[in-house]
Amino acid sequence: MIPVMKTGSIIEYIDRQRIVCAVVLEINDQRLRLLTEGNREVKLPAGRVLHAGQNGLDLDAGRDALVAMLHQKAARRKALKEEVHVRELWEVLNTEQQFIDLETMTAFCFPDPLTDDHASAVLRAFFDNRRYFKFQQDGFFPYTEAQVEKMRKEAQEAEYRTRLIEEGGGWLKGAVEGKSSKTPSDEVVDVLRSVYLYGKESRHYAVGRAILSRAKMADPEDLFPVLVGIGIFQEDENVDLLRLEAPTVFAPEVDVHAEKLLHRADLSGGDAPRKDLTDLPVMTIDGQATLDFDDALSIETDGKHLRLGVHIADVGELIRRGDPVDRSAMGRASSIYMPDSRIPMLPPVLAEGLCSLKAGETRPAISLFVELTAAAEVLDFTILASRIRVDSQLSYFDVNQMAEENEDIRLLHRIASGFRQRRLDAGALQINLPEIHVWIDRGGQVRVNQVNRESPGRMLVTELMIMANWLTARFLKENRQPAVFRSQAAPRQRLFKGEEGTLFQNWMQRKLLNRFVLDIDAAPHAGLGLDAYVTASSPIRKYYDLVTQRQVRALLGLETPYTAEEIEALIQELQEPMARVGRVQFRRHRYWMLKSLAERIGEKAEAIVLYKKRSSYQILLTDTLLECDLPASRGLTLKPEDLVQVTFQRVNARKDVLNVYLG
Hints:
Blueprint: E1 9-15, E2 18-28, E3 31-36, E4 41-45, E5 49-56, H1 63-81, H2 86-93, E6 100-101, H3 102-109, H4 116-128, E7 133-136, E8 139-142, H5 145-176, H6 186-198, H7 205-214, H8 223-229, H9 239-243, H10 252-264, E9 275-276, E10 283-286, E11 295-301, E12 305-313, H11 324-332, E13 336-337, E14 342-343, H12 348-354, E15 362-373, E16 378-389, E17 392-395, H13 396-402, H14 407-425, E18 435-440, E19 446-451, H15 456-478, E20 485-487, H16 503-511, E21 517-519, H17 543-555, H18 564-597, E22 604-612, E23 616-621, E24 626-631, E25 643-652, E26 657-662
Parallel strand pairs: 9-16, 10-17
Antiparallel strand pairs: 1-2, 1-5, 2-3, 3-4, 6-8, 7-8, 11-12, 12-15, 13-14, 15-16, 18-19, 20-21, 22-23, 22-25, 23-24, 25-26
Helix pairs in contact: 1-4, 3-4, 5-7, 6-7, 14-15
């Protein structure tokens, strides 16, 4: 309701969160011309008037006198305001939960006789402290105790945020300018760290942006060197692990359970019905730095037929469904391998100890035996629970050195070559790209080299594991056992036949592959040229493989299988952690690759043109297999598969920047 006013009336209105006292000079169609206590003339809609008194001022007194009288009025009202105790009034009145008009509230606060100054003092007091009553120009409504408590907390948080912004903004500005010597409070550090890691997803984003704004810092990425400077991050901090909240240490209950397994485990396989194969010559073939050996090979011949053995560590014998180690492994989904570190899926005492097929140690295993012709054609296969003892722990380098002279290695390679050819004949797509191996040497230097995936050792292990996984899938399918089957539709386009593709064709062919599908039922895997496929050869490193191994164990009478519904739920549950693993591995590999290229500014490199973009070309650096943009040069037209020479211009591993120019 608009108060009744006339010229000379003393009114009050709210401007910029303060109450202003003024006198009405003129009224024109619900618009007022006012003279304020600050000696300003303003025009105001009548609806904005908060309070209009019954008594007024004589406009003939002159402007200076009117301003002085307004000052006196405002001062008196401010003084009277101090006598109004809003919280005490609320403690008396909040139980009623009724609207209280201004006149009644003024009578609560002051004795008779009451004046306009008393009413104004009440309004001012309730305007300044709006924590206890809903404020309106004609009255007040008490908040409930719950509402008051909520507003109290909000006020505390607002005050806290303001303090953080002031402290953090001042410190960050000084840090950027090299003037800050003291370390900021933990609260400020937490805000800056969170904003750097999570950006808009940070719960501190609003406060963090305000701090950055005060320091005139536009890009949160620029926080990284500041946080390194105060010891929050290391220079080469793996921020993706932090951003994705990937577990890097094992919970105490997991370590405790692993230690219990260490002391009570029967590594021979316990009382389970297992075939003793400890006299069978068995070898592992892995990278030189491998510590967790989960697959091994054996080969036998009677002159007519070959008998291939693929032996997988029986992790399910030690780690039972739902135990602390199993729950932890499911949350991790896979081991993570990076140039500068490794995060295992299982605690090291298991991954590198009890579960690992270490030379000279008896271990429970799931053994797949494949009967083959001398021409390496599969005749039959069987899967059984076993005990094995590895004789030889070989590296890929060892196998490559002995490939021509060792009869067992020659036989294994022959089987692998024959199996690959049969896959290719069935329509498999063989993409041959070198592996870019990145590692950090003892001196902290980044080392990069290309590894030939088609070397005898790597090729035979790859093909024999594909064979083992295919036959395991057939075993599960034939026994109608649900599992984590993998399938893949044919590629959208084929760029080459067999193994004849160039580097360009192999790289572009990979982009044309359809994504693999996980399901509880078997379906063809076009990329591999197989009618069914699972992964079961790495149960120490991959949870999907452990799940599949448990389904095989169930068919062998060693445990109860997962139901189809449980497998479907696991496929869904493991999607997020598996995506996290892939992202961390890709990003960390790229980071260290860029760190190595940062040492090559000004150097030249060979690249292949992949395709044309609007104002640039997408190219592939042939020595590192990194893609980047190449700015288009006026007057020069390039086409896909052209070889060009480029020069490294700018590289920033932290910001994922790789700039090159032609020439």
